[in-house]
Amino acid sequence: MRNLCMKVNYDGTEYDGFQTQPNGNTIQDYLESAICSLTGERLKITGSGRTDAGVHAYGQVFNFHTESPIPIERWCLALNAWLPRDIIVTDAREVPLTFHARRMAKRKTYRYSINANRFPDIFHRRTQAHHPTKLDVQAMEQGLAHLIGTFDYTSFASRRSQKTNHVRTIYEAYMTVDHSFSRPGSDDQGIIHTYITGSGFLQHMVRIIMGTLLEVGEGKKSADDIPFILEAKNRSKAGPTAVGHALTLWSVEYEENIKKH
Which stretches make up the Pseudouridine synthase I TruA alpha/beta domain (predicted)? Predict the structure, then answer.
């Protein structure tokens, strides 16, 4: 028996998330079907975590146990031949039988992309939220800084969250602004990328954080409201849930004995 760990990138636009759903239109379903077509094995893979419908991944990690003797260097190309064009396996390695993609993940990073230019980018509209009106990016950065640390993030969790413990740690969070697609002499604000790295995330947590920061950028909330929102532990105190298609699971990190994906 072998335990294989793989990295998969996907455009989640047409899918109902990563984890298996009753209608069968998920990334996990397509990966398991591709493995079955390749090896004849009907098995279940273990992902590093869920992503919602419409959310993308540039660094989703999964593992599974197999009896297939296929050499590790052939797995990526072989699986990709059975997968849709918007799901690509980019890395495969053999790991100890005890490795578990979800339980052993130590840090995850998500990226949320906002197009703050006057017009949407037709080539990136599936991965960006368009916000054509003025945003106070500095205030958004100040609000984001208040979220770094270990807190009870109940205010930033979906009301449907089934977790009994909402305490998580955000290790790092920052914004970058790409002006390369802005029109010279215009009031375009560029593409605002927000990176958030944490120990783990609650359902809709990053999207609710971004919905709240957008309200800060619009002047509807103050950056200094964030600590009070955290303290309230009340979903109604935070902003709306931002659209899912602008969110990407950027990377997943493990202990040093498992090479970083």
Answer: 8-102, 145-255
| Per-residue CA distances from 222 to 10, 131, 142, 208, 228 (Å) | 35, 19, 9, 16, 11
* Pair 82, 133 in one domain: no
Quick one: 91 and 111 in the same domain?
no
110 annotated ligand binder: yes
CA neighbor of 83 nearest in space, from 147, 159, 138, 28: 28
How do the pLDDT tens digits run along the chain, 261 residues long? 999 999 999 999 999 999 998 887 999 999 999 999 999 999 999 999 999 999 999 989 999 999 999 999 999 999 999 999 999 999 999 999 999 999 999 999 999 999 999 999 999 999 999 999 999 999 999 999 999 999 999 999 999 887 889 999 999 999 999 999 899 989 999 999 999 999 999 999 999 999 999 999 999 999 999 999 999 999 999 999 999 999 999 999 998 544 444
Which member of 29, 52, 188, 224 is catalytic? Answer: 52
Residues 6+ apart with CB under 8 A from 111: 58, 193, 194, 195, 247, 248, 250
Which of residues 41, 70, 104 is at a domain's end? 104
Residues 99 and 145 grouped into a single domain: no
Q: What is the pTM of this model?
A: 0.94
Domain that holds residue 100: 2-104
237 within a domain of the structure (yes/no): yes
Q: How far is CA 143 from the centre of its chain?
A: 20
